């Protein structure tokens, strides 16, 4: 666990202006009272590390005061711009959730840019929203907890669950998720299950995973039109919202060359804040589906968490 030391807390009444240090700040569900950036949005709190400020001081050949880049909280400990949305910064009193790294620079339209000559916030400042409010002051510490994503992979197969043949599609989904995690520098805790083609059992496992706040559920198998292919029928009844576009695109893309791909009835959607995807049971199909699904995982989970990140 990494720690950040709070060196200064700062506020300003107008956006785009330098913030001034104060003795303490009170963090509420809408940010800091009397600060220009407070409100019900994802950038209510801004943080900047002295590690970033020091680099600019060297270039500018002058000392930069706390709050001069309009950060609410000036920190020391590690390069906080390397955090990611949904990571947490907390102590026993407060909890902040990282919501955005950097921002658009307004250049000469910003008072900070005009007064300081440049701004490090667009590249290395971070933004957060308040999950648990309280008081914060210089000298306090914040613990850093990276977001650990949770995934469940369910293979549906009467024969595989009976040990009559080896499941290959479930392990392949796991491999591809691990590759996605490595590429995006995430930690994903992955659990796998093999169950028979039983709709009641499938519904129980999915509902249990949702109650445990699993981020991603992938099923493999049971998406065809055989008498035991029940996966989409069960899952569709459980979804809060269906997301038809991604599965339609996959069927269209691969069905142009292989018409049999059009017979898959796989669906995608959300239950609460959990993403659910039903994939066919072949390794080849898993490769095709996951290649498209992983392109949207980040954007969708940010949307589900109310983060307006584009």
In short:
The protein is an alpha+beta fold and 310 residues long.
What would you note in describing this structure?
- With 310 residues, this protein is α+β, with helices and mostly antiparallel strands.
- The chain has two domains: 2-145, PK beta-barrel domain-like (M1 Pyruvate Kinase, Domain 3); 148-304, MoaB/Mog-like domain (Molybdenum Cofactor Biosythetic Enzyme, Chain A), CATH 3.40.980.
- Helix content is 30%, strand content 28%.
- The chain contains ten helices and 16 strands.
- It has helices at residues 50-60, 111-116, 121-124, 158-161, 169-183, 199-211, 231-238, 244-255, 283-293, 297-304; strands at residues 2-11, 20-22, 24-27, 45-49, 73-76, 88-90, 95-101, 126-132, 134-137, 141-145, 148-156, 187-195, 216-220, 241-242, 268-271, 274-279.
- Strands 1-5-4-8-7-6-10 form a seven-stranded mixed barrel. It has a six-stranded mixed beta sheet with strand order 12-11-13-16-15-14, sandwiched between helices.
- Helix 5 (169-183) packs parallel to helix 9 and helix 6 packs parallel to helix 7 (231-238).
- The longest helix has 15 residues, at 169-183.
- The chain is elongated and about 70 Å long.
- The model has no long low-confidence stretch (mean pLDDT 91).
Which characteristics define this entry?
single chain; 310 residues; alpha+beta; M1 Pyruvate Kinase, Domain 3; Molybdenum Cofactor Biosythetic Enzyme, Chain A; six-stranded mixed sheet; 10 helices; 16 strands; 30% helix; elongated
């Amino acid at each position: 666990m990494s720690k950040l030391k709070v060196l200064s807390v700062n506020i300003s009444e107008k956006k785009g202006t330098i913030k001034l240090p104060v003795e303490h700040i009170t963090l509420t569900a809408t940010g800091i009272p009397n600060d220009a950036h407070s409100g019900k949005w994802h950038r209510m709190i801004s943080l900047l590390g002295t590690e970033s400020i020091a680099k600019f001081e060297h270039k500018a050949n002058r000392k930069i005061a706390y709050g001069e880049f309009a950060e609410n909280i000036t920190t020391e400990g590690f390069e906080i711009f390397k955090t990611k949305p949904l990571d947490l910064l907390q102590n026993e009193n407060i909890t902040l959730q990282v919501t955005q790294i950097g921002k658009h620079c307004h250049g000469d339209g910003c008072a900070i840019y005009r007064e300081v000559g440049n701004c490090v916030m667009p590249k290395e400042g971070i933004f957060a929203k308040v999950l648990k409010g309280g008081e914060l002051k210089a000298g306090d510490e914040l613990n850093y907890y990276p977001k650990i994503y949770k995934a469940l992979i369910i293979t549906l197969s009467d024969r595989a669950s009976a040990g009559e043949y080896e499941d290959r599609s479930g392990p392949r989904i796991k491999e591809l998720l691990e590759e996605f995690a490595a590429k995006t520098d995430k930690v994903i805790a992955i659990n796998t299950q093999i169950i028979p083609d039983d709709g009641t059992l499938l519904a129980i496992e999915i509902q249990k995973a949702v109650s445990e706040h699993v981020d991603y559920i992938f099923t493999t198998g049971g998406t065809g039109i055989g008498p035991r292919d029940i996966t989409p029928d069960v899952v569709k009844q459980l979804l809060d919202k269906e997301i038809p576009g991604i599965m339609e695109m996959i069927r269209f893309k691969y069905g142009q060359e292989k018409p049999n791909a059009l017979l898959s009835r796989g669906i995608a959607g959300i239950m609460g804040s959990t993403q659910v995807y039903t994939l066919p049971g072949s390794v080849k199909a898993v490769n095709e589906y996951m290649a498209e699904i992983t392109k949207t995982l980040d954007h969708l989970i940010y949307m589900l968490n109310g983060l307006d990140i584009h």
